[in-house]
Amino acid sequence: MNKSAKQYELDELDRKTLMLLQEDGRLSNVDLSRQLNLSPPTTHGRVRRLEEQGYITGYTAILDHTKIGYDMICFINVRLQAYQQEQTGDFRNDIIAMSEVVECYQVTGEYDYLLKVAVKDQRALEQFVVDRLTPLPWVNRVHTSLVLTEVKATTAYTL
What we know:
The protein has two domains: 12-52, Arc Repressor Mutant, subunit A (Orthogonal Bundle); 72-146, Alpha-Beta Plaits.
């Protein structure tokens, strides 16, 4: 987010713009402007402002993990040895470097972090947990849950 950009209160057209782009990030500016009943230059300006202010952080293709060979999705809870700033920074840097980790959240409760991990099979999960995650010196405990069925997965927020 551009720190110098003035924060702007979202209006109804901004919300509609964000909803439409969440549904289809590939909408052309012309198609978006038609759905908003605005001119293309006005629509482009709105989208640029939303990007500059950090409401829109990027555009991406969402892949079907099973079609690209990642048949196992897991959630791994991680408790650190000690909760000190240096250790958490080192842990975060290590997690960021691990391609198997697709999401990582610092959480409250019994564990310190929740990881969403995508791997190709049971052997890959074992290698990840045994050879890469648990050997980290700041990891105290892990608890792994395997996803049996994906009930809902969305990237869209209600505005």
